[in-house]
């Protein structure tokens, strides 16, 4: 049975710290006393930021209620970027600098607290939502007769509390139900399924997609059921993608629909979560090797930021209907460039919390680092966030709520 949908068409995403997770899913934490200590430090910080009208009876309120009340007043902070190389916190003059420093001291972004499948394999972050991180470990294992099978381990964890949940594997029987064998699958990915429903904070949902030379399959995991189910599957031929699909780009969720760039083509794949229908869209010409990010543009319409190569400006496109419901056309609305002292790298990521993210390299010959920038989707305002110290492109923006070490430190965080 598929997870329940909300009225907005999204699967319910709920949070990790509710008691239902601890009891029914055996969420593990290596140091429960340390976790309790951190939780105890949050209360005075929340009291300091809640308006006086809401503080009546605050001490009698549960930690979960305090957290919900705090989030209703304060949006999550952009604290930095995470990758397999670790955490790059926001730096001055970004307003989240103090909070980012506190998180860098308190959290463990190595993910070493999550048990590894083998000593040779490491966890890699593949999605972030609400301060929690979805990590994966993909590897090929040799079987009889020299055949290889794709093994994809997934876990949900909180770098601050060191809590984690190891997700069960997608079984061979589940693959067989969509007429696939593990040996057929040569690529996969996973992401959280976000929701605007913030009322219930006791569970979460994850989507995993796998594809072979002939078809793509989408699976869902719900923490309420603690198992995977088949969402949908279809062949590349039925999608009009007759040539072999090498890989899919990063997944983006907009208006309850998921989008992927079909790498090395001018095509985009869409999954409608209401109908479970997979379909394709054409992209503008010359986007075979480009990076794209799909975003909300209002009234249920989507837009796109794209970059065709390093040093090129970022284009902003609207997707407009062209006569019929199934006929669409991209129209360039504007182009975006980084501040004068930077030239853009081939990196566009997001969206998250109303932003996309860019990277740039200083033009001066003695420049020793690149930098991450945030771009607010509504205003197109660009702001430098931090240096880019990672040796590779892939990184995820990390939003969350900082640990409150003391009342004075929390006041300095500009939450």
From TrEMBL:
Stretches assigned to the F-box protein AT5G49610-like beta-propeller domain: 127-293
Domain of life: Eukaryota
One Pfam family, short name: Beta-prop_AT5G49610-like
Official protein name in the record: F-box protein AT5G49610-like beta-propeller domain-containing protein
Organism of provenance: Urochloa decumbens
